[in-house]
Amino acid sequence: MKSRKNRTEDQQTQISRDMKILGERGFMRRRLLGFVVATGGMAMIGGAVLAQSRPPPGGMGGMGRPFGPGPGNGRADPVVTAEGPDGQCMNFAWETNGPFPADGTNGSRNGVLNALADSGIVRRNLMADLDDPGQTVNGVPLELSLQLVDVNNACAPLSGHAVYIWGCDAAGDYSLYNQPDRSWLRGVQQSDERGIVQFTTLFPGCYMGRYPHLHFEVFSSLANATTGRNSLLISQLALPGSDCEAVFETAHYESSKRTFARNNSIERDNVFGDNGEERISIMTLRGTGNPADGYEMAAVVGLAA
Question: Is the N end or the C end of the chain the one with fewer CB atoms within 10 Å?
Fold first, then answer.
């Protein structure tokens, strides 16, 4: 078990790296599960839908290495909207994937991590350790549903795509990095004919410098979900503030309660804050639940496919 001092140092490292990425406007990407040391080579929610216009090339990766497209200068990527049978859809902004993606694009003390190479990465339930299913994470469960839609085709569902999602535990730690011996809260699913992927994961905690969030990447197929460099979209999802307050009153979230008291403004968050009110709204999960029974939340993720 890591000491509070070591966890704090890891989290401060994460924040400084995120800020560096955001400062350079290299909103880059890393990806899916399987942990390896590299040797070389829901139903549609009413209202706005999320979509994304692919940013221009030339960004910098989170570890300072250039790869893949970046969002360019600030929020230069235009807001793209379309009308579909279930309402209007809007482009979902590219964001930093942070320093803990385990998608083959960055390193750690143990080398380059790529959870996508793990044979068990394609799974719905993320609460257990990949390599030791008897080890499960503590906290409030979250049933998550994401629907992928094409903003350039009347918000039509995108089937056969892959989504890799990862998040921190109740104390704000990430598996494979802050917790190098654990590989929970990471997984991939393929979208069905309705464009929907579903996960059972954990309501994430809150660490210093960030508003509570989940990371995700979208790929054109499971076959292409082998490295973050192949992603069609890298972004983040925010948790509703009122639900954060309720969850952080429960066991296992004691440190998150204290941290959230200082990081409870999504408008001042260094990732979500510059998206504007409309985009912040579509990037925030919606649903029902309570800390005792868990939560069911969803979002519609639009791509300019």
Answer: N
